[in-house]
Write a structure and sequence with these properties.
By secondary structure, the chain is mainly alpha-helical. It has helices at about 10-15, 20-35, 40-45, 50-60, 75-80, 85-90, 110-120, 130-145, 150-160, 165-170; strands at about 90-95, 100-105, 125-130.
Length: about 170
C-alpha cells in the first residue's frame, strides 16, 4: 500500500469494531492467493458491508462521507456531468455549493477521477465518499440505464444526419 503514514484499511475497520483480526488475516490470505482489493474481499466474505468499506476508505483518505439513502441529487448538479461519464466513472453529482460541484465517489484513492471531472465540467469538484452500490443505483435512477455502444453509435449517426436519437435507435 502506498502513502506513508496511511493506516491500512483492515486496521481502520478493526478499530471501528467492524471486523476482527482473524477476519482481516483471512481476507489477506485470500488477497495473496487471488489478488483483489482487501475491502472488496472482506465484503465478499460477508465480514462487512460496502458501506463500512466506504467509511473506512474515506477515513483513510481524509475525506468526508455521505449517506446516500434518501438523497435526491440537484438537477443543476446532474446537468454538469453527462450520463455516460457518470456511469463510466461511477460518480454521482449531488449538488453545487457556490462554484464547487460536490460529487459522490466510491474510491477516494482514485483522485484522477476528480481531476478529470474538474477538467470536463470547468468547475471545482469536491469528492465525498459514498457506498458504491448506492452510487450505482442512484446513477441509474438519475440518468437511466447505461446506453450500449450500439445506441451511442446510432445516436452519433443520427446526429450526423440531423435526425433525433430515438428514431435512429429504432431503425
Amino acid at each position: 500500500m502506498s502513502g506513508e503514514g496511511r493506516k491500512p484499511l483492515g486496521q481502520i475497520l478493526k478499530a471501528r469494531g467492524v471486523v476482527r483480526e482473524g477476519q482481516i488475516q483471512e481476507a489477506l490470505a485470500e488477497q495473496r492467493k487471488h489478488g483483489g482489493l482487501i475491502g472488496q474481499i472482506l465484503v465478499e466474505q460477508g465480514h462487512c458491508t460496502s458501506g463500512d468499506v466506504a467509511v473506512a476508505l474515506a477515513e483513510q483518505a481524509g475525506m468526508q462521507t455521505v449517506e446516500l439513502e434518501g438523497v435526491q441529487p440537484e438537477p443543476e448538479a446532474l446537468e454538469r456531468i453527462d450520463a455516460s461519464t457518470a456511469h463510466a466513472f461511477g460518480v454521482l453529482p449531488l449538488r453545487l455549493e457556490g462554484a464547487t460541484l460536490v460529487v459522490a465517489i466510491s474510491d477516494p484513492l482514485n483522485t484522477s477521477v476528480l481531476e478529470d471531472l474538474r477538467f470536463t465540467t470547468g468547475v471545482d469538484v469536491r469528492g465525498v465518499v459514498g457506498d458504491a452500490e448506492r452510487i450505482r443505483a442512484l446513477v441509474k435512477a438519475s440518468y437511466g440505464e447505461e446506453a450500449s455502444l450500439s445506441d451511442a453509435i446510432a445516436a452519433a449517426a443520427a446526429a450526423a444526419r440531423g435526425e433525433d436519437a430515438a428514431s435512429a435507435a429504432a431503425s
